[in-house]
Design goal:
The structure is a single chain. The chain is α/β, with parallel strands linked by helices and 695 residues long. Helix content is 44%, strand content 21%. The protein has 22 helices and 22 strands. The strands form 4 sheets. Strands 11, 12, 13, 14, 15, 16 and 17 form a 7-stranded mixed β-sheet that branches. A 5-stranded parallel β-sheet has the order 2-1-3-4-5, with helices on both faces. It has a 5-stranded antiparallel β-sheet with strand order 7-6-10-9-8, with helices on both faces. Strand 9 and strand 10 form a beta hairpin. The termini are far apart.
């Protein structure tokens, strides 16, 4: 750009030379803020990062760090996690909350909190990376150099963009000068064109009239951006015709302010020649005579579609994660309440033998409660907190039964076809959840085909590219297609959002596809959807295959056992119930007492351990997973395994967090029926206490 400036005529050369000199005399310098309450750590980091081209700013307290962040622009902030009065997470959150510092990369330094939950908290607070103490100088220097280099390059691009703008304005101002400047101006324009050809930018001029949007572009990059040639924009209707109608009124209002403001920045959606919608950033300034009379508009088009799509993707992911966390908490409380309702109804039912009318009413109430439980189960599936029972699944034996079920469910107007590739690997999934996911997709397809249509299920092997030194990864691809009405881009973008539905009120909860999404994610797979209006919809689920594992596809689910449940008699043996919710605890106690167990109860882990130490008659511990205090039911189970290795343990939970592992323990999902509890108790106690089982 310096050479281009030197070619300007004599009367404008001085200002261009001054601009070039300012760029050379004021090179961009990177500043790094190092925050640590230990002066020794500050000194050590300073020595590692010492560089003549970098300015290091040191802060030994959170307050000083925030003050420095407000005063200066930093390329990177190195932030200690453990500090007095305010930890690094809080400081990072405050820095992120201010618009000026929201985009400054934060690198956490920590000697503690290396667990995944703390690292996740750090990334949630705004960290881009972690460096663990003791610091390896080479690692720290390498990571810092990446961010410094990015900062310097970004600053240089901004400086060059500003210089480019100045050059363009200078070019317009000297237009019409003496013939002696023509050759210099032409060479300058050629130089600029070479630069602009590589950027998603197009320059134009336009008549100074709010109703006339004939755009005269100065280079051919507009055709690369939009698919329309420069000549096509001579049509004054083209720009308005391709403008998104929803943006039209807003853009017209903003354009009307350009005379008063002298410049305006517009952002709108515009359809290219191929029909695709692009996001355009349009920056406009007024070009006028020396006396100030406006002559024309000068504008620059920037295609910012990729940036907008990335922003929308990040917003969507953040929204799904937030809703997932919310639904987990709701499901926990809701399942506790349903446990009270179903448990007490089961107890009432046993006292109504012979009263058929009352029994029918109780069964109806229990059925309604289970429908609520099913809704909660969908919430948990979406939030990926639903406890799964994964087993090996053989598609050749599973799919025929599913097809028969779908034929009965979807009706005669839907033609169902299945195509299974030979030699498919097995996948390890929860059979019931997998079946529910495919049924959900099929039911949605049926609703999209009100006059009938075709539903296809195709299952084939999917070979992932193996990395060097690793084995080939085998996956299974399940494709579900329909010939229905399809979805618009707006609906497609929200298809997996919970509670989003296009059905009439009362026809759907909006949780079906979100449940499918959560189940697939929790099973280690991926799901994608492709759809267009009037062209049908195509869902593709990819699940990892299993090879050489000891899963048995014939293994029986606890809930699959046929036949009616036999009654159980506790025969006065002791059971310890550990539950923090008083109402739930009362219901569970009543259920065990109805089975003639002697019941001991505790509201937390400490009280439970005291009772186990004191009471020798306890033959079983039945504990909730999530309880207040420092220990959960899972940790209680591990302590019991160490002290009383022969003690049967049964855990119960309304929902499980992602960091909770119940492997090795029997788990009863809330809400549950008394019959389900009896079946699990029979399995747990049959070996050690066969006399408990009667009849």
């Amino acid at each position: 750009m310096k050479d281009g400036l030197s070619l300007l005529p004599t009367r404008t050369g001085s200002s261009a030379e001054e601009l070039s000199a300012r760029l050379e005399l004021n090179p961009v310098r990177a500043k790094i803020l190092i925050v640590d309450d230990d002066q020794r750590n500050l000194l050590a980091a300073s020595e590692v990062l010492a560089d003549p081209a970098i300015d290091l700013v040191l802060a030994n307290s959170p307050e000083e760090a925030l003050r420095q962040a407000l005063r200066e622009d930093f390329a990177l902030i190195l932030l200690d996690v453990q500090m007095p009065r305010m930890d690094g997470y809080e400081v990072a959150s405050l820095i992120r909350s201010r618009s000026r510092t929201s985009r400054v990369p934060i690198l956490f330094l920590t000697a503690h909190n290396k667990e995944d939950i703390h690292i996740f908290r750090g990334y949630s607070a705004g960290a881009v990376d972690y460096v663990f103490k003791p610091i390896q100088p080479l690692v720290l220097k390498s990571k810092v150099d990446v961010f410094v280099d990015l900062y310097l390059k970004t600053a240089e691009i901004q400086r060059k963009a500003e210089a480019e703008k100045q050059l363009l304005l200078e070019n317009l101002r000297v237009r019409g000068e003496k013939l002696a400047a023509e050759q210099a101006l032409r060479r300058r324009e050629e130089h600029q064109a070479a630069v602009l050809r590589g950027l998603p930018i197009a320059l134009y001029t336009s008549p100074f009239s709010g109703d006339d949007r004939r755009l005269q572009f100065t280079n051919d990059s507009i055709e690369r951006i939009t698919g329309f040639s420069r000549e096509a924009f001579a049509d004054s209707n083209l720009w308005g015709r391709q403008l998104e109608p929803d943006d039209s009124d807003r853009i017209s209002a903003e354009l009307s302010t350009v005379l008063e403001a002298g410049a305006v920045t517009l952002e709108y959606r515009w359809r290219n020649a191929d029909g695709r919608e692009r996001h355009i950033l349009d920056q406009i300034v007024i070009n006028g005579h020396e006396n100030g009379t406006p002559v024309e508009l000068f504008g620059m088009w920037f295609d910012v579609t990729e940036r907008k799509e990335l922003e929308l993707s990040l917003q969507h992911a953040s929204k799904l994660e937030a809703v997932g966390r919310l639904t987990g908490g709701i499901a926990h409380d809701f399942n506790n309440m349903l446990s009270i309702v179903i448990g007490n109804l089961d107890l009432v039912k046993s006292s109504l033998l012979g009263n058929e009318k009352a029994l029918r009413r109780v069964e109806s109430a229990i059925e309604g409660a289970h429908r609520c439980a099913e809704l909660t189960s969908r919430l948990l599936a979406f939030s990926r907190r639903s406890p799964l029972q994964p087993r090996a699944l053989d598609f050749t034996s599973f799919i025929p039964g599913l097809i028969k079920l779908l034929e009965r469910t979807l009706g005669e107007r839907i033609a169902i076809s299945a195509d299974l590739e030979d030699g498919l690997p097995e996948v390890c999934v929860d059979h019931a959840q997998f079946e529910a996911a495919l049924i959900n997709l099929a039911v949605n397809a049926r609703d999209a085909m009100p006059d009938g249509g075709a539903l296809g299920i195709r299952i084939k092997r999917h070979e992932a590219v193996a990395q060097e030194g690793s084995e080939q990864v085998h996956s299974v691809e399940i494709t579900v297609t329909d010939s229905g009405t399809g979805m618009s881009p707006a609906v497609l973008a929200r298809v997996f959002e919970p509670f989003f539905t296009t059905k009439e009120a009362g026809k759907g909860t909006g949780l079906g596809l979100s449940m499918v999404y959560g189940f697939v994610q929790q099973s280690g797979g991926t799901i994608a959807v492709d759809s267009n209006p009037d062209q049908g919809t195509r869902f593709v689920i990819t699940l990892p295959g299993i090879a050489g594992q000891s899963f048995s596809s014939n293994e029986l689910d606890p809930g699959d056992a046929p036949g009616a449940l036999n009654p159980m008699n506790g025969a006065g043996r002791g059971v310890l119930v550990v539950e923090d919710d008083a109402d739930v605890r009362s219901t569970v106690i009543s259920t065990f007492e109805a089975l003639e167990f002697t019941v001991f109860s505790a509201q937390d882990v400490d009280e439970a351990l005291r009772l186990l130490q004191a009471e020798a008659n306890i033959v079983l511990v039945f504990s909730d997973v999530n309880m207040p205090g420092t220990m959960s039911g899972i940790e209680l189970g591990h302590i019991i395994r160490q002290r009383w290795p022969d003690m049967p343990i049964l855990l119960s939970s309304g929902y499980l967090r992602e960091d909770q592992d119940t492997n090795g323990f029997s788990l009863l999902q809330k809400p549950y029926r008394a019959a389900e509890l009896i079946e699990v108790l029979r399995s747990l106690l049959s070996n050690a206490y066969e006399t408990i089982l009667l009849e």
